[in-house]
Amino acid sequence: MSNKNTYQPIDAQLIIKIVVSDLGILMDDLLSKHRYEPLPMARAMIVHALRSCTDLSFPDIAWKLHKRNHSTIMTANDRLLAGDYDQAIKAYIPQAIDARDYTRWVCNRAREASQEPTSRRSSANAA
Question: Is 54 exposed, middle or buried (0-12, 13-18, 19+ CB in 10 A)?
């Protein structure tokens, strides 16, 4: 049996769950058609994090977020990159420098969680 460190891909659902938890929104609201704040910002954060730390395409991300057209996903990513959510994220995550900083933080947290041994994650979820 080899003791090599193997790369564990980051689970897209884990990224989604982190953002939903951090922003205090319901998963059902995130996946709905509603556009009241902070839902558009949350979707943009998720899109950018998924594009940054997974190999998912825009159409794949659209499917995960229950969107029919990936162009809405691309627009969300563009708005985040343009800085549209830089001030708004601070109301939810005061330590975030800007929206991109927050998505890097989400990716790092998801990466760390993905590297945990399965038994440790299972016991943490049971608590």
Answer: middle
